UniProtKB/TrEMBL annotation:
Keyword Cytoplasm carried by entry: yes
InterPro entries reported for this sequence: CofD, CofD-like_dom_sf, Gluconeogen_factor
Species this protein is from: Corynebacterium variabile
Pfam families: CofD (PF01933)
UniProt keyword Glycoprotein present: no
Protein's name in the database: Putative gluconeogenesis factor
């Protein structure tokens, strides 16, 4: 008997994460990787009946990097995290989440490996397909959705980085996701190797079938922008009838985007994908407070064809202090705004908290 066929005693079948509000969307496709995608998926599972995670596959560090090098497989880490984010919010779901995320200790060959990575690696070898393995594990976990890689082959990330040499204007090529994410220089541009990497059919179809497509938050150069470097993904984003939403980071990262304004984050998306068009950019209320910064951000969003929505999406520590993480429940409330009659996607008139003067009232 799988989890999908069994009940957790004393708890409702539906996810507790949906208790704060009714699901208003049928299908959400969320693009990203790592902890940023994890937060989005936690929110999306409470806002839609079916959630597909479209996950980056360029990780080359830790357990994922070791399995990629030794088995020639897709790096499983971000895929594992996405599955963990979508498990049911019940005691058994929590058990499986912790098991998938658990890393072996000690000093032997298994030290540092995540249990979920090994399960995915084994299933992939047995079934002969990473997507079949992900679907099988998803069914075992009873998730309402799918986890699919953005490309069927492992990719490499290479960045043009400025400021690593004696001459601050010198540009150095830095290769590898871990190296790019931890560089001390300023990342100017990234590329995928191979540059003509295909998209998985499942990722493309998820984007085309969705009511809502999200991109971000997350490591901008290693988890967000790589999706915009896959021609098949970009084409699907252009053709879909879904509402397309960029979820901005709360703060600039200390490595990849150190010192970047929200406006510059958007410029980087356009630099890598000039044809990108989206409908909304969601920004935390307190991340951009000055009128000048907001005007610059809104002008940048206009180049995407997007409207800026200012919303409270930051997690607090239950003592009134904000963290640098998104709150799944708050973010779920925002995602619900894009579904149903009178939704944000149905109107072009700014509502309270949207771009412009109405948002300034929240300061």
């Amino acid at each position: 008997m799988t989890l999908a066929e069994s009940d957790d005693p004393g708890l409702p079948v539906e996810d507790i994460s949906a208790a704060a509000g009714e699901r208003t969307l049928d299908r959400i496709a969320s693009l990203g990787g790592g902890h940023g995608l994890f937060a989005t998926l936690r929110a999306a599972r409470g806002a839609a009946d079916h959630v597909t995670a479209v996950v980056t596959v360029a990780d080359d560090g830790g357990s994922s990097g070791r399995m990629r090098r030794e088995l020639g497989s897709l790096p499983p880490g971000d895929l594992r995290m996405a599955l963990s984010a979508l498990v049911r919010d019940t005691p058994r779901g929590h058990l499986w989440e912790h098991t998938l995320q658990h890393r072996f200790g000690g000093h032997g060959a298994l030290a540092g490996h995540a249990v979920g990575n090994l399960i995915l690696g084994g299933l992939t070898e047995v079934m002969g397909s990473s997507i079949a393995a992900l679907d099988e594990l998803g069914e075992l976990l009873g998730i309402r959705g799918r986890v699919v890689p953005m490309s069927p082959e492992p990719l490499d990330l290479e960045a043009e980085v400025q400021g690593l040499g004696d001459d601050p204007r010198e540009v150095t090529a830095v290769r590898g996701q871990v190296a790019v994410a931890s560089t001390l220089g300023t990342v100017r541009r990234v590329r995928l190797i191979p540059q003509d990497a295909p998209a998985t059919d499942e990722a493309v179809q998820a984007i085309l079938d969705a009511d809502l497509v999200t991109l971000g938050p997350g490591s901008w150069f290693s988890s967000v922008i790589p999706h915009l470097l896959i021609p098949g993904i970009v084409d699907a984003l252009t053709r879909t009838t879904a509402t397309r939403v960029i979820l901005m980071n709360l703060v600039a990262e200390s490595s990849e985007t150190n010192g970047f304004s929200m406006e510059r984050h958007i410029h980087m998306l356009l630099q890598h994908c000039p044809s990108l068009q989206v409908d909304f950019v969601v920004v935390d209320l307190n991340s951009v407070q000055s009128s000048k910064e907001r005007r610059h951000l809104e002008r940048a969003a206009e180049r995407l064809g997007a409207r800026v929505l200012y919303r409270d999406v930051r997690e607090d520590d239950d003592r009134g202090r904000f963290t640098d993480r998104h709150s799944p429940s708050k973010l779920a409330d925002v995602l619900r705004e894009f579904g149903g009659p009178g939704s944000a996607s149905d109107t072009t008139t700014p509502r309270e908290g949207d771009a412009g003067a109405a948002a300034d009232a929240h300061r």
